[in-house]
Specification:
Helix content is 33%, strand content 25%. The chain is of the alpha+beta class and 162 residues long. The longest helix is centred in the middle third of the chain and has 16 residues. The relative contact order is 0.16.
């Protein structure tokens, strides 16, 4: 992903996540802070999805639509901020390819965990992908999840060696 891709990424986000809007500045900052974690999925030159991920800390997801400021110096996981595919691209293998990239990136960086916040509609996908609910977050994590809206799940998966 480059800055030139952001219009395409935001258009996909508007289609895939209308209930979870995020400002362009959020995507710009993630790209600037951790470009290795920002990918665009294409088919025949058309953007069909994207992945945005960055170093994080287990049990401490960033708030929705908020800048990070910086990546945590004590990062212990790769946080999958968003993996989004247009409806027509689902089942194409693009999501699995982005997830495989995430596992490889985390393994290269030395992290043992992937983490994400799942929307209710995506939860079954993440269950099938090997993610499980994180149980050690306490009240602080529950409050942060509530700020996203109902039914959100903070989940983790062990990094598969690449």
């Amino acid at each position: 992903m480059t800055a030139a891709d952001l219009d395409r990424v935001l258009a996909i986000a508007d289609i895939v996540h209308p209930d979870y809007p995020e400002d362009r500045a959020v995507f710009e900052e993630r790209l600037a802070l951790y470009p290795a974690g920002c990918r665009v999925a294409e088919c025949r030159g058309e953007a069909i999805g994207y992945g945005v991920m960055h170093p994080g800390r287990l049990g401490v997801p960033p708030p929705l639509d908020s800048p990070l400021g910086d990546v945590p110096a004590d990062a212990d996981c790769l946080y999958l901020h968003d993996i989004a595919l247009l409806p027509a691209a689902r089942g194409s293998g693009a999501g699995a390819a982005v997830l495989a990239y995430a596992h490889g990136l985390a393994a290269r960086e030395g992290w043992r965990w992937l983490a994400l916040t799942s929307t209710p509609t995506a939860r079954s996908y993440w269950d099938r992908a090997g993610f499980t609910p994180y149980r050690d977050g306490g009240a602080a994590l529950a409050a942060k999840l509530a700020s996203y809206g109902g039914g959100m799940s903070y989940m983790t998966a062990a990094v598969m060696p690449g």
